[in-house]
Design brief:
The protein is mainly alpha-helical. The protein has four helices and no strands.
Length: 124
Amino acid sequence: MAGKREAGGGKKRGASRRRGVPADRVKLPTLSKGRRPEFYEDPAIDQLFAIVTALTGEVSVLYDRIDTLERVLARTRAMKPDDPESYVPPDEVADWRVRRREELLRRVFAVLEAYANRQTAAPR
């Protein structure tokens, strides 16, 4: 129906590039089923590969966010180039950053924790 708006307002936010399915309506599993694939004889290599892959995903998202912020700030002239170097975050921001950093570390090293849990649960 032409001209009909979605129930939340005008623009479709979070729309997937595949078949126009809104991303907020797609249910993805929170945990994978089955064992993690193993490619090398030494499980430590597989674990390191998984960690590097997780970090690569995190860094990719950060690059996109930083690029967006720099472009918006340059367009609006809201910030001078040396402003980030002199910024001192208030306590609540510093606390939030600590929590965010801990969550990142939990996600990145979840592979090692899962492996350690499997090792302790396995009969010897």
